[in-house]
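Q: I'm writing up a methods section and want to include an example of the input and output format. Could you take the sequence below and give the corresponding predicted structure tokens, formatted cleanly so I can copy it straight into the document?
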Amino acid sequence: MIEENGNIDKSWISFQNVSKSFGTFFAVDNFSLEIPQGQFLGLIGPNGAGKTTLIQMFIGLLIPISGSITVDGKTISRKNIALKRLIGVVPQHMNLDKDLTVLQNMTFAAKLFGIKGKQRDQRIHDLLKLMGLDEYENRITRRLSGGMARKLMIARALIHDPKILVLDEPTTGVDLISRRKIWEIIGMMRKRGLTVILTSHYIEEVETLSDRIVLIKNGSIVVQGSSKELKEYVGSTTVSYNETTSKIAYRFFKDRMKAESFANSLDVDHSVRSLTLEDVFYHFSKEA
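A: Here is the clean output for your methods example:
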């Protein structure tokens, strides 16, 4: 069910009244959110909305100034190693060792989690095969394409069999074909029951993959719900038109006939089309 500034029933992952400031600037402000186990959650919002700060607090890189973040009732912290082992992270920026091979990157990640011997070798083999990288295990990482490097980052994040996967802009800088392939791989993780938290500037990506979408602005939730619910909340039809020579305006209508009536009253170039999730993003993210 769509909610503005609201929550759903208490669940596995819980953000309770979380705030984080840098000086006098509040990047996250009294943020509360519940995520059921096995849900695929998409976080969207304009630049500076607080998405990355939320992710960094969730994985223990930043400490909230107030509130709490818990998984299964246990508080996330830098010292809670057991809890952090439940989480696999694919960061926005490339952090692979470019001078190591694909296999060496995976082996090093396995060692960090104490995975050894046949278990390590089998785990690496299975993940590289899943990602379509098994034929490239001896390739130096700097020679991988952008899409292959992103798939390696996902494989590395899964080496310790986490229950939660955090994807921070996982397809940044990759071509369309590679992006769609990564979507397929992420979809497989979803079917395996992982809880996934995704941030992305690609609205189509969020819409395609997410069960629930949370739009945040100025560190707080603006609205949340499924893609269908969010679109129905704003309307069914979009009219775009040239408000001035340099500005395009948008009007949203729940009734297509009213939209077409409005469009027919315009004496400037315009178009009438079905409303998209990008329209929802624009509607809630634009400055008042």
